[in-house]
Request: fold
Amino acid sequence: MLSKEQRIAALILVCIALVGWIVYAVWPSRQPVLPDLPEKKPRRSWEERKDSMRLVDSLRYAQWAAEREQRYDSFRLADSMRRDEWKRIRQQQYDSFRIADSLWRDSVGFRFPKRIKKDTILNLNRCDTAELQLIRGIGPYAAKRIASYREQLGGFYSLDQLSDSTLAPLHIDTLVSHFFINPEDVRTMPVNRSSIQVLQQHPYLRFQQAKAVYNLRRQKIRLRSLDDLRTLNEFSEQELERLAPYLSFE
Reply:
């Protein structure tokens, strides 16, 4: 048998255990805090993956097509430049061949056995291509070039102009004795009334020079003499002297 003190102690222990169990049962338990995990993406279907692959393939093909077109454009440009250069060289060769052939035919009298007399002299600014071909050393092609260049210039003011690069390779030493020049036949160009397009058509004027003359005329309203053009850096003294007979400052 337990003594009175032991029973009291056992009752106290039972009460303590009962109170602890009640507190544990009633007190809310704290859940552990877990880190946020990334949401797992749902797996795409096969159709969706095929659509994305088609999109990527189309983008790659578009980029490849653009690069190929760019390469083709560069090839076309290079080929066009080579073709233009080849045509230019071939035209120069053909021109030299035609002139050489014309000079040879004239020298042997192959096509034009009847020539003018040695003492006959023609007006270089008035004779036509048929008369030019009567001169030994001038064939059909050379005659057309002389007439065309004469029209562009507005007429020759000196026989030395037959040695210009546009008419090369004419043998000027054998031709000057058959021509004479009348200065009144030279056609002048009105500087104060001509546009840039008209000015630059003259063989002795480049586009930059024609533009400079036009701008100077706009500043001064009217150009009075060749001295006004000497203020321009685009002209040398030799170019001005060569151009002077064709300019009119009216």
